[in-house]
Amino acid sequence: MVEEKSSLEKLKEDYEIIRKKYNFPSFDEMNKEFFIEKLAESETDILVRELRKQVGDRLANYMRFMETLINPVNVPMFVFSLVKSLSSEDKTKLGEMYNLLAKKEIEFIKLDISFSESGEVKFINESVDLWKIIQTDFSEIILRLESKLDDKAEVRDRDYFG
After folding, report:
1. For 107, left (φ over 0), alpha (ψ -120 to 50), or beta?
2. Looking at beta carbons, which pairs linking 94-97 to residues 24 or more positions away fall under 8 Å?
3. 113: exposed, middle or buried (C-beta count within 10 Å: 0-12, 13-18, 19+)?
4. Could you give the CA distance from residue 57 to residue 106 in angstroms, rounded to a whole number?
5. CA torsion through residues 94, 67, 121, 136, sign
6. pLDDT class for 155, splitting at 50, 70, 90?
7. For 109, how many CA atoms within 13 A lie in the half-sphere containing its CB?
8. What pLDDT does 152 receive?
9. Reduced to 3 states, what is the DSSP secondary structure of residue 134?
10. CA–CA separation, 119 vs 19, rounded Å?
11. pLDDT tens per residue across span 127-152
């Protein structure tokens, strides 16, 4: 009896083929950063397009959160305390990252409108590089915001009970 491969095993094999062809990062690296294992649940003849969508969606989610911090309109209450605690350097850095992600969003839409295999590959490779740059800066900003929220919570607790 021949054992059938799982959809994840099949995805890994298919990914390995295009990884070599287009010089993409390893499956594990892409999965850690962009959750590409989700693609195992969908059937496609154009894996590179589905990869681009997964990568683009992840970047778009971060762009939306940055937009919330830069321009808080109709947002949850906790965002206002986050925005108040942002330093001017962090605001500048968020704006720069946001602009880079916005450019990627336009490329993403352009590829959705008109498929181009070379465009898909270029988008993925450039997005991986961009994420490596943005990830460090954004992580640092988030850690600072988190520590300021913790500081404010401690002050509120003391005032409330004190």
Report:
1. alpha
2. 94/66, 94/69, 94/70, 94/141, 95/70, 97/66, 97/134, 97/137, 97/138
3. exposed
4. 12
5. positive
6. very low
7. 6
8. 57
9. helix
10. 15
11. 999 999 999 999 999 999 888 776 65
| Three-state secondary structure string covering 52-117 | HHHHHHHHHHHHHHHHHHHCCCCCCHHHHHHHHCCCHHHHHHHHHHHHHHHHHHHHHHHHHHCCCH
Place of tokens 């640092």: 140
d(C-alpha 104, C-alpha 60), whole Å: 9
Whether residue 39 contacts residue 64, with contact meaning beta carbons closer than 8 Å, is answered with: no
* Per-residue model confidence as pLDDT tens digits over 10-35: 999 999 999 999 999 999 999 999 99
Q: Tell me if 128 sits within 8 A of 59, measured CB to CB.
A: no
pTM summary value: 0.85
Residue 7 has pLDDT above 60, yes or no: yes
